[in-house]
């Protein structure tokens, strides 16, 4: 019987085209507590070096994405979208002048979301065609 080398080791090759099932890949070793602590410390250091306005803007973009998701569903979830839009607006309008370079984009994104919400809400209230 012939064998074939694979990253998981030697595998026998059967004649007649039938191949043995590959052995499952070994589970990767779980990181140790020390490795996890070191990784967490690095993430904390990186976050501490990042200006707070950048982190806040990133969270605002997440709220924008959440609102857009609820508006884009085949059956839009207007209540959920409104909650996300209101939270997004609270950040953008409540932090006016403090969001750095992203502020202009965030203000524009808020306007776009509000317009989309109104258009979608109106479309859902339109009477059926021909009736």
Automatic annotation (TrEMBL):
Regions of compositional bias (Basic and acidic residues) in chain numbering: 8-17
Region of interest (Disordered), ranges: 1-36
Name recorded for this polypeptide: DUF1844 domain-containing protein
Source species: Acidiferrimicrobium australe
């Amino acid at each position: 019987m012939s064998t074939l080398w694979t990253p998981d080791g030697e595998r026998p090759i059967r004649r007649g085209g039938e191949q043995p099932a590959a052995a499952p890949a070994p589970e990767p070793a779980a990181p140790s507590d020390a490795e996890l602590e070191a990784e967490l410390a690095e993430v904390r250091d990186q976050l501490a070096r990042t200006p707070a306005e950048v982190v806040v803007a990133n969270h605002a973009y997440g709220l924008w994405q959440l609102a857009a998701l609820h508006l884009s569903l085949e059956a839009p979830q207007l209540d959920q979208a409104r909650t996300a839009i209101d939270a997004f607006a609270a950040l953008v309008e409540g932090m006016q002048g403090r969001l750095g370079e992203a502020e202009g984009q965030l203000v524009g994104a808020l306007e776009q979301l509000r317009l989309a919400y109104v258009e979608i809400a109106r479309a859902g209230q339109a009477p059926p065609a021909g009736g």
